[in-house]
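In the design runs reported in the main text, the only information available to the sequence generator was the tokenized backbone. The following block is the verbatim input for one such run; it is reproduced so that readers can re-run the procedure and compare outputs position by position.
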């Protein structure tokens, strides 16, 4: 759950930072922006809500690279489920709504 101050839970932020590091390693491109969106970013998460992570960059993430990123996320030592979304593949309406409360994540 959120911390009550509008910021995501520390474990959720740790997971998000690990995902950002995986994205940087797999893509080899620091131009990809990684951000938390959805219920954790908007402080509406329940205890076991998925962690929604957006990836946005100069081009769509290659499907093989995306699979490698997903496998890296699955290997993280957490009970949370990480949902990855390549924002180059979403509708403008979804992009606008999701990014309204997005939290930028730096690799950790």
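Verbatim output:
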């Amino acid at each position: 759950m959120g911390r009550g101050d509008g910021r995501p839970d520390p474990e959720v932020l740790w997971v998000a930072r690990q995902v950002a590091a995986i994205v940087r390693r797999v893509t080899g491109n620091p131009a990809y922006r990684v951000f938390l969106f959805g219920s954790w970013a908007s402080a509406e998460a329940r205890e076991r809500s998925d962690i929604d992570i957006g990836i946005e960059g100069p081009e769509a993430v290659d499907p093989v690279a995306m699979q490698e990123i997903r496998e890296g996320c699955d290997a993280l030592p957490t009970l949370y489920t990480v949902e990855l979304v390549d924002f180059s593949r979403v509708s403008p309406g979804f992009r606008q709504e999701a990014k309204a409360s997005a939290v930028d994540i730096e690799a950790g």
